[in-house]
């Protein structure tokens, strides 16, 4: 009987065939992740351009990509300030949503009475369509920007509130017991146990709230900006549609959608940076 | 190494449970008339079938629950740092590095890290994890996580450490290793341990007293003494003495199960 030697000889490659194949596949996937969407974009824009030129579609029905690009450049002096306003509106709404949502969530978890008293109203505020509230805000709040901000805030704050509340309550029971045994104070419990446990939930809420803040801002601009106060990108878009300036309309639309993408990307990055060391959701499968 | 432990009969009382009962929702008797004297330096195993109130006993001792009747008295009073606990799960904070997890008991007492840095590092060294102090729990194996939990329980040099089936979820080899290490640790810091387990072998290997419990209602039915000297090692695990103690404990356990059935 002989024993087969299973150790590899010194001349064997450090990587076996399977590993090498996996490595190649990973590289291919990495490139494809950027290449494929870019390709789709190019093809779509090209098809759009050909359709508009070959079929001679009038620009007030569908402006071609060239016209949109032209508007983007020529109207930049108009669009850029509008972008700043919408951006400021969205970010401020998000900021206040974070402050309000987290504060309220902490209050709710610290006091059952506070939660029982106010949670139903938070829900009511959330389920009432913001489009229905916006005109009222416009009446009661003189400053159009503040009215729009309130509007966007109402939409953005709920996911932060509800997610953070769930997160603060989702602490490990054994860790709770451990903190009790070591005589932790309320503050220590919040700071060292509840807050870190809630972080992944909060960041999930933040991602949703970022998108909602933009939607809230757009809705607010549609409703409140209509009074001729000329707020941001969405107001510009609406105005352009009245004037049949479809190049500018599409340019504003593209800018809004780019803003949404940037917000989402930034929120995802924040979430990744905060969690990648320890949380399962940020764990890459080996 | 600290001075040799006093013989069983001459140890000072640390804790006394007298006629302790715990009833849940008015009709589930988790623990009935439990009397247990815990002495300084004891290694006590609570051995019994599922549902016999072992965890309940530990929760009562740790003050997480109060007895329905009877009382638990610490001689000399219980201070803030007198207790360390290890649960069946490692129960680490996943967001904190190993060293911060071990520092936790001090942090909750308000002691700055600079003052206890040496204690924390020494505890990590004792469990053999000084190289992993900057790691996150996620990066450790099950056995290593449990070592961190043990380091955390003993970092304050408590008078009593409570362990609730700490090694039940580990594989046999890791478990043996941790049993050996636990005894070595106890020699090093000389604490008293109450250890909950389902395993006859584990209880005999580790303890000098075994309290056998039965379920429905949860109660103590026998107490055995494992009269074998420490330090115990792999040699003890294969000795005739060990086999004899295992048979005794096993018989008592079967009696416990039989009575309950
Ligand atoms: N909080 C509780 N509420 C109601 N019943 C409980 C509670 N905790 C424990 N019990 C009951 O008390 C009895 C003893 O429970 P305990 O957890 O102490 O048993 P155990 O010996 O630790 O069992 P195991 O080996 O399965 O961990 C069980 O019947 C259990 O269902
Ligand atoms: Mg138990």
Automatic annotation (TrEMBL), chain A:
UniProt GO BP: transmembrane transport
Membrane topology per record: Multi-pass membrane protein
CDD domains noted in UniProt: TM_PBP2
Domain ABC transmembrane type-1 intervals: 83-271
Protein localization: Cell membrane
Organism domain of life: Bacteria
The keyword Transport belongs to this UniProt entry's keyword annotation: yes
Spans traversing the lipid bilayer: 31-51, 78-106, 118-137, 143-161, 198-224, 249-275
GO CC aspect terms: plasma membrane
Protein name as it appears in the record: NitT/TauT family transport system permease protein
Protein source organism: Allosediminivita pacifica
Taxonomic path: Bacteria, Pseudomonadati, Pseudomonadota, Alphaproteobacteria, Rhodobacterales
TrEMBL record, chain B:
Molecular-function GO terms, alphabetical: ATP binding; ATP hydrolysis activity
A matching Pfam family: ABC_tran
PROSITE patterns listed in its UniProt record: ABC_TRANSPORTER_1, ABC_TRANSPORTER_2
Domain spans labelled ABC transporter: 15-242
Source organism, top-level taxon: Bacteria
Alphabetized UniProt keyword annotations: ATP-binding, Nucleotide-binding, Transport
InterPro entries: AAA+_ATPase, ABC_transporter-like_ATP-bd, ABC_transporter-like_CS, ABC_transporter_ATP-bind, P-loop_NTPase
Sequence similarity: Belongs to the ABC transporter superfamily.
Record-given protein name: NitT/TauT family transport system ATP-binding protein
